[in-house]
C-alpha cells in the first residue's frame, strides 16, 4: 500500500478538458466540506447551480476572468482552487487592485499534507505576477478549520456578507491578504 502522504503533488492550470474530473471533484468536496452542517436540499441546490458540467466548462474556458489550479497525486485530481478576476470587491477594498480566491477544496483523505497550502501559494504567486495588491475571499462563519487555515496563511477578517448556499442565506466573513 502506498502512503499517500509521501506521494508528491503536481500542480497545473486547469483547461476545458478537465471539465469532467473537476465537476466530480468540486461536487464531492463540497459535500465533504459542508454535508454534516447543512441540509442536503441546500447542498444539492448549490451544486446543481455552481457545479453543473456546462457551468464548470464555461468557467474553465473563460481564462481572462478565471484561473483554476489543479492538484494531482498519481495522476488523480485531489484538489483545486480558483481565482476569479471579475468578482465584485468588498467595499473595504475599493481603490485596491484585488482578485478573489473563490474556491479552494481538497478531498478529505488528502488534507493535512500541505496540498491546500500549495494551491493557495500558487494563487498568491499568480496574483503577485499579475500585479494585484490584495487577494480576498469569503468563508462561511461556521467553517472554523478554513478560517484558521486562512489566518495561518496571512489572511485577516475585514467584514462579512451574506451568501446564498442553495436556499439557505448564510453569513460569510470577508478575509483579505495584502500582497
TrEMBL record:
Record's signal peptide: none
Entry-linked CDD domains: NAT_SF (cd04301)
Keyword ATP-binding set for record: no
Sequence ranges assigned to domain N-acetyltransferase in this UniProt record: 9-179
UniProt entry tagged with the keyword Transferase: yes
One Gene Ontology MF term: acyltransferase activity, transferring groups other than amino-acyl groups
Record keywords, A-Z: Acyltransferase, Transferase
Pfam families, per the entry: Acetyltransf_1
The name this protein goes by in its record: GNAT family N-acetyltransferase
